Amino acid sequence: MSLYGAIEAGGTKFVCAVGTGPDDLRAQVRLPTTTPAETLGRCIDFFRNQPKVEALGVGCFGPIELRRGTPGYGHVTTTPKPGWANADVVGPLQQALGVPLGFDTDVNGAVLGESRWGAARGLDTALYVTIGTGIGGGALVGGKLAHGLVHPEMGHLLLPREPDDASFEGVCPFHGGRCWEGVASGPALERRWGCRAETLPAPHPAWDLQARYVASALTTLVLVLSPERVILGGGVMQAEQLFPLVRSHLLRSLGGYVSADALVHGIDSYVVPPLLGQRAGIAGALALAELAAGEPPAAPQSIAQLS
Ligand code: ADP
Ligand code: ZN
Q1: Considering the entire predicted model, what is its pTM?
Q2: Residue with the nearest Cα to atom 11 of ligand 1?
Q3: Mind listing the domains of the chain with CATH numbers?
Q4: What spacing in Å lies between the alpha carbon of 242 and ligand 1's midpoint?
Q5: Per-residue pLDDT reduced to its tens digit, 268-296
């Protein structure tokens, strides 16, 4: 089994790990995200103190430049995060560690990891959405991660407003209350209801409204991408009561038009939480490393081994 390096590069923390898969992590460290030079320097120190890895995968917060051969390849681009706008992530790592490097969005990594070891195992077209401080989606389409002009920015899909929520101003700095992130991210819930989402009781009108917005966006995503499974992660989706509500609103808003059995008769296994749970991010980065190394995937592990 080959040894890979993984970096889950987030706006508040970087997690570095070395391993052969998500249930065989040989070493791991969590570093606070400070300046690019300091944070990447500490990542490099970590990997220099580990056995040599075959390849390194980085699942990164965005937006990022993914077009190989462009001068900005491997950089974070327009983030408001202080110090990180136009920061080169791939360059310093590549230079210091000299191994093949896979780089993609955190959510593209997550969908790849879930397809390799988790809830989308064996599927080649799947969607992963995180609903947390922001909303972001990653898509595996025909076995390939979706990016092109930039990369998908599903959190900013424009949504029709729910009639009982017409006066809410929303929180997206670009679209106010017109986009998904503006009305359904964790900060949107906090602004609308006046408390953090995790403190809202399970029987509360917040959840049905939230589920309607999530189902509305998923309706578009299902129609455009035709995923074989939809994985919903992130802090807000830890409110488990959302899953049955999202499923029934999704079926209702598709209106019976998409008649695939997996959706109509298998909705409980069509819209699901990430099987890798807290490890989805680091597993995604490992899967990006494996892809960069060009290794054909080994036999899948059983789901029981992972939980
Ligand atoms: P990030 O998006 O920054 O990586 P998370 O995915 O953990 O972080 O999302 C953080 C958001 O999730 C916060 O807005 C928080 O209020 C919300 N959140 C965290 N736990 C829960 C929970 N159990 N139920 C609902 N919302 C939650
Ligand atoms: Zn927006």
Answers
A1: 0.94
A2: 132
A3: 4-109+278-306 (3.30.420.40), 121-273 (3.30.420.40)
A4: 13
A5: 999 999 999 989 999 999 999 999 998 65
